[in-house]
Design goal:
With 307 residues, the protein is of the alpha+beta class. It has two domains: 5-33 and 280-306; 35-274. The protein has helices at residues 10-31, 87-92, 282-306; strands at 35-38, 57-67, 80-84, 105-106, 129-131, 140-152, 165-174, 176-181, 200-204, 213-218, 227-237, 250-252, 254-264, 267-271, 274-275. Strand 14 (267-271) and strand 15 form a beta hairpin. Helix 1 (10-31) packs antiparallel against helix 3. The N and C termini lie close together (7 Å).
Length: 307
């Protein structure tokens, strides 16, 4: 006796439908995003994935602490929204080029000249000259900060993220830099001297303006929170001088952070300024397909035995 769709009774059809529905629920729960992220933008990037004009204040990235004396005290002149460096200044400084999705930024108050350091004709016009000489009393310190949001389903605000979250980035800076994630704890903007910071991810020495480094922050080297998180990159402006210097001359400095992406395990959830819609992997479709086939096989086997 042959068994086909016309031989199925209403009860059997309902059972098959239930099996398929259960499989769909299983598939849906596997695809549902466990973690979402927002505002993880490259330096100089706008919310529409464009770039800020050189000499203009950028969105998202700001300098939350600045010092022209090695961190002994803050210099608020150079704190606030960061500015985009012009392409000509990037080239003249010998920097690795900006990209199509990110550009070099500098603290507010930067000049286009090493000798003329005041006046609206020179300041905040796309130049990248700021105080900083040596690693002593005349060292320039600039904390570039990006605030972004993480949300893990079912987790209280302020709790430590338990999902396998990671953030990838590619960095260049003048001169050296140290990267921190939430250096002062949850929901605390890094507005104090770097000597107070904890949770450093990596520290790169001087001479990083013509080279780039890929850096990964993950749950083994950083603490992510459910809510607001602060990525802080401390850039040292030393004029390439190790040790103390008596010079107070201004020299080039800046930061480039691009290819910013975020992952939940092996699933990418953010890339270069936009959220990524997860694409079902083979491992997510197999359980659902198996459920449908198993339900169909069970009913068919029962029908054949009854025959």
């Amino acid at each position: 006796m042959m068994c086909n769709a016309h031989n199925l009774t209403p009860v059997t059809a309902r059972k098959l439908l239930f099996g398929a529905f259960a499989a769909v629920l299983l598939l849906h729960s596997d695809l549902r995003a466990q973690v979402t992220i927002a505002n993880l933008f490259n330096t100089g990037q706008t919310s529409s994935q464009g770039l800020t004009a050189g000499g203009s204040a950028v969105s998202f990235w700001s300098v939350t602490y600045a010092s022209s004396n090695g961190g002994s005290s803050a210099n608020t002149t150079f704190q606030g929204a960061a500015y985009a460096i012009t392409a000509s200044a990037v080239s003249a400084s010998g920097y690795t080029p900006s990209t199509s999705t990110a550009e070099w930024i500098v603290a507010p108050g930067a000049s286009t000249s090493s000798t003329t350091t005041s006046g609206s004709k020179y300041v905040n016009k796309g130049g990248n000259y700021l105080p900083g000489n040596g690693t002593g009393a005349n060292e320039g310190l600039f904390v570039y900060t990006l605030a972004f949001n993480l949300t893990q389903t079912g987790l209280a605000v302020g709790a430590v993220i338990t999902a396998p979250v990671s953030i990838d980035m590619t960095i260049a800076a003048d001169d050296g830099y140290t990267i921190y994630l939430n250096p002062l704890g949850y929901n605390a903007s890094p507005t104090t001297a770097p000597s107070n910071y904890t949770n450093s991810i990596i520290s790169i020495p001087q001479g990083q303006w013509s080279a780039t480094s890929q850096v990964i922050a993950n749950t083994s080297n950083a603490t992510f929170y459910n809510g607001v998180n602060y990525l802080a990159i401390v850039v040292d402006n030393t004029n390439g001088i190790s040790g103390s210097s008596s010079s107070t001359a201004w020299n080039e400095t800046g930061l480039l952070d691009y290819n910013m992406s975020a992952w939940n395990g092996t699933t990418e959830i953010w890339a270069n300024g936009a959220a990524v819609v997860p694409v079902p992997e083979v491992g997510t479709w197999i359980p659902g397909l198996f459920g449908v086939l198993l339900a169909g096989y069970t009913q068919l086997r029962r029908r054949l035995k009854a025959a």
